[in-house]
Amino acid sequence: MSDGTETTNYELFKPDVESVGWGEEVNQNFDTLDSELKKKEAKVNGSKVDSPDFSNDEIVHSVTGSTITSQLSSAIKTDIAKGLIAHGTIALTKEPTGFTSPNGLETIGVSYDQANRRVTLTGVFEGYYKGEKIVELTDGWVSPQHDEDPTTTLFLKYNSNGFEWTTTPWEFSEMQIAYACYRIDGAFCFGQREPHGFMQHQSHKEFHETIGTYRTSGGNLIDFEPQSTTATERRPDIEDTYVSDEDLPSKILALTTKAYTRCYTNGTGKSEFDVDETEIINLTGNIPNYNQVTAGIGSQVAMNSGQTTRYMSVWVIALPTTSDATSQKFRYLFKQGQSASSDIAVERGLNPQDLFLGDLEEISPEFVFTNQIILRYRASPTNNWDIFEVRALTGNRFIQTGSPSGQFLSVVSTGDGLTGNGTPTSPLQPVGAISFIADNGDTEIETGELTFGADAVKSGTIEKAIMRVDTSSTITVDIYVNGTKISDDAPLTITAGTTLTETTFTGWDKTISVGDYITANVTANDNATKLSIQLTTG
Fold this sequence. Notes:
A hairpin with a 2-residue loop joins strand 22 (287-294) and strand 23. The chain contains 8 helices and 37 strands. The longest helix is centred in the N-terminal third of the chain and has 23 residues, at 23-45. The strands form 11 sheets. Strands 30, 31, 32, 33, 34, 35, 36 and 37 form an 8-stranded antiparallel sheet that branches. Strands 20-19-25-24-26-27 form a 6-stranded mixed sheet. A 4-stranded antiparallel sheet has the order 11-10-12-13.
């Protein structure tokens, strides 16, 4: 053996300068390098991969006299890169997949042609699937046709099969392109744009399930007059709205046509859409309706119910639809509220998570609430309605529409003595219990009809009344059913005290039927600022 030393890691022989007879040892070095490189390649791949031929003439550039110079040829470097990256890293990560554009993803135009059953992409962009550029994707690309007469939603994607329409949602490792909403009766609703970027597919899935769509700016309601009953002054426009669906930004064009798409739950429990409507709310005559939902079935109920003043909400939803005219009619939905109240504080306390959405989340994979419009109806003096106020909504889709975290009941079962769903719009309460609460702050409650009421949920006879006030007072209250006084000349009365329990009801008409609207009228009060009344029927 010739004279020399060994390297630190692989103990490769290094001949001393001027030494001779080291050819055998150097050849052994090459065998070791070949073996170790192959191990590295196999570890990255996770499987055995053929390696290039490491012949001496490719590795040894020159061996002359006392000098040795060795290097990997460019061909071997290329093969190793393919083994480590093309067959390794990308195979493992499935990245990069998605769209890229020098002008931003929001500039990629997506349009759906219902007649020809195709999607068209426009703009400056490139598309990649697992690191390979999809050469067909250029400005003006037109998708394959999907099947005729679909009766369910369709997803346009690119994967190992190429471009395809499917009825199953995308895998997050697939290229997402667009979405077309069809109903079970074959009716087309709208398309949505989905040209996502190079987000890692595991992160994309996580963000989709926990963050979803959110508003970044815009979306304000304009060109309306708050608290005006003039019809033309309660028909708002909407500014351009900018939203992001995970990594995909979209500009939702302003609404200036005064033509609205209303959304509500119908009598079969499905989402219904009324397109090109003049008013933002369904009406019975001149009275707004709320969308009462019972066990998932919707109905239209006039919000006045004999009450002087009541409030209800309409919720504005923004969707990043495709640019075709039909889909654009759905870019803003006016979701009908599902309750009405005589107390403005109740409406202000509502949030989108209080709504029953039904199949809306299945119809659209991406949407976000942007505004709460609180309507007011007054039987007197106007017998009309107005936009009382507007609240801008913040947060992402799941904060707005998700359930609270922690330990909580997902299903509420009630026996014969309890009713309600346990939600703010349908609280749990004893069957036959009719409750009123009035809070006038630090000011005495004035005489007159209280601006609240209650609907009877059970037929029966009033058996008991409990009335309480916050401080020692003399107060009298008459009870009305559907606008007719039933308390005769014997109102509920507290004299210089705080509590009344009544079971006699002399002269009262105590019969109550389901759906009766019950109100209270304060006829005298010398001190109380807070009042509660509970009527129990048997």
